[in-house]
Automatic annotation (TrEMBL):
Name of the gene this protein is made from: RvY_16642
Any coiled-coil regions, as ranges: none
Gene3D superfamilies in UniProt: Vaccinia Virus protein VP39
Record-linked SUPFAM superfamilies: S-adenosyl-L-methionine-dependent methyltransferases (SSF53335)
Protein name in UniProt: Methyltransferase domain-containing protein
C-alpha cells in the first residue's frame, strides 16, 4: 500500500483532458492501483466508463460508497494485484497508472507495460506517473532510503 495524493499532476491532468475531449464517448479506461479512488472519480467526471483496480477491497468499497448512482453505472471494481490482471486484447481505450510504478521491480514494470500494450486499442493511451524518494510525501523516509542504498552498495 502506498500513498494517495488528492491532486492532479501535469501528466495525469493531460490524460484527463484527452479523455474528456475525445470524440469517442464514453471511453473505456482502466485505472490501476486506485487506493480510495481519487483518480477514478476524476475519470468519472469526464464521462468515461472506468474499471478501477486496487489490492484492497476495502479501498474499493469506500470508492463505491462515495460516488453517485449515475457514476456507479459507469464504474466497475476489480480487486487484485495490477501485475497479475488479465484483460482481453485491445479492450480499453486508456490506462491510468498513477504513483505506483515506483513500487515495482524492473521485471514487473516490463510485465505491466507489455500487458498494457496488449490491452490498449491501437490508438489507446497509457498514462504512467511515479513518485520519487525526493517527493515531499517521503521526506521522513529519505534518511532510511539513503542508509539502505548505502548498505546495499557495500554488499556488492
Amino acid at each position: 500500500m502506498g500513498v494517495m495524493l488528492e491532486d492532479v499532476g501535469k501528466f495525469d491532468g493531460e490524460f484527463l483532458d484527452a479523455v474528456k475531449q475525445s470524440p469517442k464517448n464514453p471511453l473505456k479506461i482502466l485505472d490501476l492501483c486506485v487506493a480510495y479512488g481519487f483518480t477514478t472519480k476524476e475519470l468519472l467526471k469526464t464521462g468515461a466508463d472506468v474499471t478501477a483496480d486496487d489490492l484492497s477491497e476495502e479501498h474499493l468499497k469506500h470508492l463505491w460508497e462515495t460516488v453517485s448512482e449515475e457514476e456507479r453505472t459507469r464504474l466497475q471494481l476489480l480487486p487484485g494485484n495490477a501485475v497479475e490482471l488479465e484483460f482481453p486484447a485491445k479492450s480499453v481505450d486508456g490506462i491510468m497508472a498513477c504513483r505506483w510504478f515506483n513500487f515495482l521491480t524492473g521485471d514487473k514494470v516490463r510485465k505491466v507495460l507489455e500487458k498494457s500494450y496488449n490491452w490498449l486499442v491501437p490508438s489507446g493511451t497509457l498514462c504512467v506517473t511515479a513518485e520519487s524518494i525526493h517527493s515531499a510525501c517521503f521526506v521522513n523516509a529519505y534518511a532510511k532510503y539513503v542508509r539502505a542504498k548505502e548498505s546495499s552498495a557495500e554488499d556488492e
